[in-house]
Write a structure and sequence with these properties.
Helices cover 39% and strands 31% of the residues. It has 116 residues and is α+β, with helices and mostly antiparallel strands. Helix 2 crosses helix 4. The longest helix is centred in the first third of the chain and has 14 residues. The model has no long low-confidence stretch (mean pLDDT 89).
């Protein structure tokens, strides 16, 4: 995901990109991810201007490597250092997934820093 061309531009422009990753223990649909995004945007309007969302199925090999169960990796990426909004993102997304009746957990926050 940090290899994405647009994310690389964010890192060059802002010096860092911040990601928040969740594991959803099911195959979540495009429409459900859109609903989560809309709920998050309402809560973090100012920060959502430069946000990307990636969701990929976790196969058996990835599940073993990450020490998780199969399902879907759901990652929200922001331009800049957004560590301060971690509690909001965790709360909104976990509540949204619970509303949708998905078992999920917050995996981590990561920052990718430009080394230029």
């Amino acid at each position: 995901m940090f290899n994405d061309v647009e994310i690389q531009k964010w890192i060059e422009r802002h010096g860092v990109a911040t990601s928040f990753t969740f594991i959803v223990y099911a195959d979540i649909s495009d429409e459900e991810v859109e609903l989560l995004i809309k709920g998050l945007v309402v809560q973090i309007t100012e920060h959502a201007k430069s946000m990307a969302v990636f969701f990929d199925k976790i196969n058996e090999e990835q599940a073993v490597a990450w020490n998780v169960y199969r399902g879907t990796s759901l990652t929200f990426v922001f331009a800049g250092d957004k560590e301060e909004i971690e509690p909001i993102i965790k709360h909104v997304i976990k509540d949204g997934l619970e509303f949708l009746k998905y078992k999920a957990e917050y995996l981590s926050m990561n920052r990718s820093v430009s080394h230029v």
